[in-house]
Amino acid sequence: MTLTQDAKLLTFQDISTHNNKSDCWLIISNKVYDVTPFLYEHPGGEDIILKATGRDATEDYNGVNHSGEATGILQKYYVGDLDSSTLPAKKQYNPIAVVAKQISVSKSRGIFQILVPLLIIALAYGLYHIYKKD
After folding, report:
1. How far apart are alpha carbons 126 and 132 in whole angstroms?
2. Over the chain (134 residues), what is each successive 10-residue block's mean pLDDT?
């Protein structure tokens, strides 16, 4: 990672504490921006920016296709660079584990749905024969 001459290297833990209306920092493409003064000017509203704090907001920013002008505005708020080694590991989505869990739950539920009626029938049959009048 190449740093500009005045750039600070910031940890994710430090950046994530700047997550409210009075102190709002964003991580975009491993760069850190203090966008607090821009919150009320943002065309999409402050809530969109506030939801992107405390994590890497690169996908959020790039997903909107911001103009070159927006990128230029963002540069005014540059604070430093993210020490990417401090980012928490992303949780990997494992569809096989999700499906296996659903199958396990539905199997136990299916067995329960079969056994309960069978037990009721067996109990009723047993009671019938016990109290059956000759």
Report:
1. 10
2. 64 94 95 95 91 91 88 93 86 64 63 81 89 72
